[in-house]
Give the backbone structure.
Amino acid sequence: MSQADGDNARFGGFGHGNGSGMARGEDAARGGAHVATLLPGMTLERADVELAMPAEPDSVALARQMVRGIIDRLGWSDESRTDISIAVTEACTNAVLHAYPDSTGDYEVFAWAEPDKLVVAVRDHGQGISPRVPSPSAGLGLGMPLMLAIADEVNFTSEGGVTEVRMRFTPGSRREDA
């Protein structure tokens, strides 16, 4: 098995495709049990760490601490720890601020860790990603550019009631071309 095949199996095809959609089918009945259709870019493999929280501002700090703990365990540099924490904070903040504008809801943070790779996904079941419309409550709009500048790969998907931002990091992954 090649390295790419191993990555594809480990990270559920992360980085493949254009990230334009998530849902491609309906739940299928099998023996009386409903089995959810796996969305592109998602994996059946259980994440190393999973965290589900209410989409409230105070929850972002918990997600950030979770990721910092993983990075510390991996032994990556303080610079990597700071950069990745910023990217994850931005993804979580987007879920908190934009997923449920007229209601409440939850979001999840998933992490798959290896010595030389960390994949973090932030997922919500809110309104999805839409083009930016300027407004006083929209913020400065720096979250997505920061995630794109820090991570090796970023995949935004929003379809079928699920929005996910999936980021892949390696030690020192801040892109020089950003």
